[in-house]
Amino acid sequence: MNPLQILIIALRALLLNKMRSFLTTLGIIIGVGAVIAMTAIGNGAQAQVEKSFESMGSNMLMVRSGSSRSGGMRGGAGSQPTITWGDLDAIKNEVPSVLYAAPSLSSSAQVMAEGQNWNTSITGTTNDFFAIRNWPIVSGRQFEQNEMKSGAKVAIVGQTVVDNLFGPLSDPLGSQMRVSNIPFEIIGVLKKRGTGGGGQDQDDAIYIPERTFRAKIQGGLGQFVRGMIFVGATSKETTSLAQQQIEELLRERHRLKADQEDDFSVRNMADMAEAMQQSTATMTSLLAGIALVSLLVGGIGIMNIMLVSVTERTREIGLRMAIGAKSFDIMTQFIVEASVLSTIGGLLGIGSGIGIAKLITHIFEWPMQVQPNIILLAIGFSAVVGIGFGLWPALKASRLDPIQALRYE
Amino acid sequence: MALIEINNLQKIYDSGEVQVRALRGVSLAIEPGMLVAIMGTSGSGKSTLMNILGCLDRPTSGTYLLDGTDVSKLSRDELADIRNRFIGFVFQNFNLLARTSAQENVELPLVYAGVPRAERHVRSREALIKVGLEKRMDHHPSQLSGGQQQRVAIARAIAGKPRLLLADEPTGNLDSRTSVEVMGIFQDLVKAGITVVLVTHEPDIAEYAHRVITVRDGHICADITHEPLDAHEQLKLIPDPDEELAKGGVPTSQKAKQAEQDASPEAPANAEAPSKADAADKAATGSAP
After folding, report:
1. What is the extent of the structural domain holding B162?
2. Angle, nearest 10°, between helix axes B276-287 and B176-191?
């Protein structure tokens, strides 16, 4: 018998019981659909994490002072200032794989403008900061050289600050606001960024020149950088190299002996992004695993129906054997029936899975990403389920004794 | 040379504790072109003999030469092949595939023989013409009367051009007139060169065979060759209820129709309605041993 003939016989048998075939297929449709939808959502979340880290600057490093130690008690990172302004210049000018380096001196402050007030973070920095964070200014301008030098009272603000002080549709350029009672002129508004990798609202921030921050808010210029340094490596690939070179440079500048611990810390955003991605990947596989269980249940449904079908069609099997069907013919007929059910279920499942993922994206505004290899996996798995769970009923059918089968009532 | 030659055939069913000796050394030769009836009460071993003759079962000991080939030691699949090429089967309960047209039912053995589609169509058509069903090729079994269903089954049995046709109580579910019609078809097939072996417990059906073999307790206890009744001649003696209706005769009463259906529950609603005489005839012969 040729394969086409076997397929025709199988399709015919399935079409004789349309409702039953459909219900059996439903198990596989739901299983495959769940796998596709779950992985699409998981992959979407992963892509989202990647995107948000990229928006923060994926070739970014953060350098902080080390921890203080008094007696046995150790403070947190940055509690003991060790990084000097000289270190910052050295990182910027002496490390070849470093493109930008900018200080980030932060505190929170109450801001007032036009009768509104708002508590937000205020950060002293340089123009390099926006370059490292890959963060364009949508209206207005950057700090000018003389403003940086003189410590001018100018500010670049995030969209959330604008919304809360001036209202969403206003143009705050040139407006005055008071930060801790010091008047500042707004010279620029940053592009809306949304939620960052750590979950904070990146747009809820005010940036002023580093010198202004030190003089007016921190109170005193001092030798140490009381905050952290953001470093932009020349590329994503050189980030690790930059980290190593900065560590070597700082150890040398701080005259640390070989057995001494670093009195500073350098964190790599790429590593953090990777860690985050790993956790979303774990979540994705967990979801896919749960979905696979439902696919398995669907497969058992197929086996159940095939067993019923074999019993119900015992006389037919006996007849087919009597008129010349070999065991192999009977076995393939039932395996093909099971495979056709699972394959059709698989194809419909892919359709419904993508549909569900799109629907969820639409309703809940979750990102999703359907990957072709998952589709192939789902088709492959459903075919395996069909053959695997069809095998036993098919073997059972092929081993029937034709005489007994013909007499079966 | 004999088409069937069996020698000292034994079949023992061993169900653990009890051993049943269904056949206790049967020897038999059947020449080609014969219509042979095997008779016997239930438990006599006639079904076992039939199953072995049909290559559905293998003997415990003894030999079975089918057309000169020893088939008593063949494997399951080899027997399936022999059945497909040499033997046609007709059953008491027709065993047609439901919701499948007459022609597709007839094509089934050809499918397993690997006959190409176009040739299957031609051969199934030929077979259906031989049994007089050329106008009902697209009908499903549920749309056919019992007699018509059995004729489809016969067409299926001969579509593969077998040398041997085995019929197990082929008239068991048919009324007497249809039974004679079916016997007529068998006689025609025998004239065309096919050997027909049928199992029956109705002596009047055995009358149409050239040879009547009676089996009892696993032995052949009688083997009579006689001049068979001509089914076509007999058919003329039995009034056709359809013709009676056509001549404007009294229509068959609903009651008689109902009685016939009760007698054979598997007969479909549109079974050829028998006349009262017919029913009486069947009642008289059916109860005779």
Report:
1. 4-287
2. 70
